[in-house]
Amino acid sequence: MTLHENEIPVDETLVRSLLEAQRPEWAGLSLAPAGEGTENTMYRLGDDLLVRLPRTADKGESLRKEQEWLPRLAPLLSRPVPEPVHAGTPTAAFPTIWSVHRWIDGDQAGPDTVTDWSAFGADLAAVVGELHSVDLMGATRADDLSWYRGGSLGPCDEWVGRGFDDCRTTVGSELDVDALEQLWRAALALPEPSAPHVWLHGDLKPTNLLVREGKLHAVIDFGALSVGFPDAEHSTVWDLPAQARQAYWDALSLDDVTWARARAWAIAVGISGISYYWDTYPAFVAECRARLQAILADAATR
């Protein structure tokens, strides 16, 4: 499945060649596909390891961030996060950084894995609160730690506006795009955020939340790790059922302005996701549509 221009072809043969060249002691271990995201392709290596390979050369910096910062953040967090054990270097066949992490057992958060959504929402809020309270350790909102979701909404208006136009053409009447745009524009009119910058995971959607025995167990994929305002961190709660969303809100005592900005970020990511991946990634488009429908239903009750 190709999602981007200039995507680097990846298969088992390539992965084994990288291992043979850089970690020959692992080259004979079993290797099996372990999922694909919008930015990385994953392979499970043996029982205890996971290989992460960026889809395009420019995505390698996301793995470099994980390799640099996760060993420093992990001891300060109470739940497991990925542990990098090899920083792969570019080769002629694969011209960017790649990575090997410890495997973390668990299932993606969903209706078949979570037993109590209210408890799950409260646990996720605890994870977010914990991460946001970690000292920045000298990190600033610069270079690869400066990502759009940790900034202000205004600079995103141009490309989000194009996304609304695209969605009117593709999704049409199946989604109330006008109502979503009204929520977006209302958030643009709010005062600029003033909270201190914090560490941001950046993409706490269900596929990055691992569950064991019905409860939140681990948080994975820190490729969007950044420093910035906390508002966008809350946007993925619209991917969860309403009871989880309410428990999250209550646990963090979020005010209405923060909630409105978080909702706007959720709209921005959902609208742009439909626009960008409409022809290439129908499963992700479905996730975005479900998120936007949840926003509309939630807005009608608040």
Give the secondary structure arrangement, pairings included.
Layout: H1 12-22, E1 31-36, E2 40-45, E3 49-54, H2 60-73, E4 84-88, E5 98-102, E6 107-108, H3 117-133, H4 157-170, H5 177-188, E7 198-200, E8 209-212, E9 215-219, E10 226-228, H6 242-252, H7 256-277, H8 282-299
Antiparallel strand pairs: 1-2, 2-3, 3-5, 4-5, 6-8, 7-10, 8-9
EC number: 2.7.-.-
InterPro entries: AGP_Transferase, Aminoglycoside_PTrfase, Kinase-like_dom_sf
GO molecular function, one term: transferase activity
Give me some keywords for this one.
302 residues; alpha+beta; Phosphorylase Kinase, domain 1; Aminoglycoside 3'-phosphotransferase, Chain: A, domain 2; 8 helices; 10 strands; 39% helix; transferase activity; Kinase-like_dom_sf; EC 2.7.-.-; Aminoglycoside phosphotransferase family protein
Please explain how this structure is put together.
The protein is of the alpha+beta class and 302 residues long. It has 2 domains: 12-102, Phosphorylase Kinase, domain 1, CATH 3.30.200; 107-299, Aminoglycoside phosphotransferase (APH), C-terminal lobe (Aminoglycoside 3'-phosphotransferase, Chain: A, domain 2), CATH 3.90.1200. Helices cover 39% and strands 15% of the residues. The chain is built from 8 helices and 10 strands. The protein has helices spanning 12-22, 60-73, 117-133, 157-170, 177-188, 242-252, 256-277, 282-299; strands spanning 31-36, 40-45, 49-54, 84-88, 98-102, 107-108, 198-200, 209-212, 215-219, 226-228. Strands 1-2-3-5-4 form a 5-stranded antiparallel sheet, sandwiched between helices. A hairpin with a 3-residue loop joins strand 2 and strand 3 (49-54). Helix 4 packs antiparallel against helix 5 (177-188). The termini are far apart. Residues 31-265 form the Aminoglycoside phosphotransferase domain. Its EC number is 2.7.-.-. This is Aminoglycoside phosphotransferase family protein.
